[in-house]
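#onboarding

Welcome to the new folks! Below is a worked example of what a typical request in this channel looks like: someone posts a single protein sequence, and someone else replies with the predicted structure as tokens. Don't worry about understanding the tokens yet, we'll cover that in week two.

Example request:
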Amino acid sequence: MDVRPRFVLFGDSLSQRAFEPGGWGAALQDRYARKADVVNRGYSGYNTRWASYVLPKVFPLVSSIPSPALVTIFFGTNDAALADQDKAKYHVPLDEYKHNILLMIRHVQDSSLPAPALVTIFFGANDAALPDKLSASQHVPIPEYKHRLSEFVQHLTQLSKKTRVVLIAPPPVDIPGRKRYATEAYGAGDEWEPERTNEHTGLYAAACREVGEATGVSIVDLWTIFQQDDNWAEYLNDGLHFTEKGSAVVFKHVLAAIEKLPGQPSLAFDDLPWDYPIHSDVDHKDPKRTFEEWEARKTGV
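Example response:
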């Protein structure tokens, strides 16, 4: 089936909120407009343990989808009834018959959604919650976090030989920003203690890097990337989630990772075809012919 490739953003709130105004997912969709569809599968508050129950539903393996391996299309005996005889009501003119058969072929070919061309896996911010603080319910120990990330990669690479994966490590945590948020959101006082720390989150970022290296998938290490800027706290609006400035950095590095992905077909913007003819290629005197020829090339019919 020849449709736009899908890029799926799978993660926690840092993915769910990626389509906010100025968000990194919105920027990615804007960049790939008319070339790829960027699909949001972010689940706010989720850790890798909870996401493991969602993964097979969001990304079902081909073997679990009851789609046919073969379809036979066998019509024509009745369509061929003579137009002026007893069975005239069954008659279908030859041009319409051919048109209907083509529609059936295309429908069968398009009856199942292809595997995504790209999946970003972006978890860790919640897994890294401290086990004895306010967000303890979200905490996942590092060994389990690594195991589940590895399982995610293994599952996604089974979808198709052409599915590429990019792991995104969690960003750093700005403690002053978290405290300001806690004070403004629910009146936290001097007794407030952080539910996450930058140092602890750094351990999860390192674990994410290790999984990427072990599985051979691309990695965008936001924990390290952000802290290369002395003013990295400006990238986070509450010490955890992205400002527009932070999203711009995420977009820049995710796009760079996509552009460099190995394998074919290339997912670089310049290498992907436009979906349907660009307007300057449409024959304004006979637009129907332009689109019929385009569809014929796509389907090979």
